[in-house]
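agent> Task received from the user: take the single chain below, predict its 3D structure, and emit structure tokens. No templates, no multimer pairing.
agent> Plan: (1) validate residues, (2) run structure prediction, (3) serialize to tokens, (4) report one or two observations.
agent> Step 1 OK, no nonstandard residues flagged.
tool_call: predict_structure(input=
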Amino acid sequence: MFNPSVRGASFALLIAAGAFPLSALACATCGCALSTDAATGFSTATGWRASLQYDFINQNQLRSGTHTISASQVAALNNAGGDQEVEHDTVNRYITLGLSYSPSADWNAKLLVPYIDRGHSTFGSASNPLGADDLSGATIKGLGDIRVIGTWQGLLERKNLGFQFGIKLPTGDFGGPNAAGDGVAGRHPTPFSSGPASQNPSPGNLVDTSLQPGTGSTDLIFGTFYHQPVGEDFDAFVNAQFQTAVANRLHQAGQDYRPGNTATVSFGARYEENPDFVPQLQVNVYRKGADQGALADTTDTAGTVVNLSPGATFSVRENLQVFGFAQVPVFSHLAGYQLAPRWTASAGVSYGF
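)
tool_result: status=success, residues=353
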């Protein structure tokens, strides 16, 4: 029988929920590990800055290892007596409000507040032939996990080397049914709203723990970046980030959950001949470890993804910037059977005052 509490979202979704590359929200999911710092330029301006970013990630293809796989191929595992979830799609929309303050060119502090709007559908552990009657759906909306990140870039005179330290707080709703299926773990987890899973008696009608708006964990974030002019009009950059959960509200026996560690490396170049229009190309590499605990899908939540991310930043007027990027996965190696996007998109606006 399909138990949504122990069927994790795909690796792609978990990146989307948990990845803020350096000081900004990444769209993520198998993909948006976009470096927003590089997108808008590594600023040393003092004062306040507000930003708003929108990320769209449509996870609509099943993948295993380095290849796509059909839903019927996954369902065949259940025909043979297995218990493998056959996910259908997950559409993610993220709106992230950012507010930062720089008292000097050396220091910056940023607050990032995400709102999550996610639609998810799954066949559960149905076997072939798959039909519409097997499909369960849910809409998950709410505040995500807030992040606070500090940056210091005072080591070099040019301020082109920076170090970052941050914390992710468990502000989003999280949890699901406990492993025994007789109680609810966490805080206000979202239930399925249609299909067979919605008809299960509570708490068996709840959406997977890894699909909820938050993870229930407090995470530490460490990052660094470096950028350097190359030639007359180009600026090259590289940055890296590591995130790990250090405290988990879901920690009791039979209802524990810990999101896997994540690591991101991004590099690329900005073409800066015209400061009002700066095209750039990023390469984003993302690695995620498997989730752990009784409420985790340990076999379907790890992997590595490489994205090619073209985009551009526009200076509309002084202190006002807008940017847009697309991300296309050029390589992925995913554990188990996971949903992944064919592309993702990000757009944002930033204003200094």
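agent> Step 4: summary for the user.
The chain has one domain: 4-347.
agent> Done.
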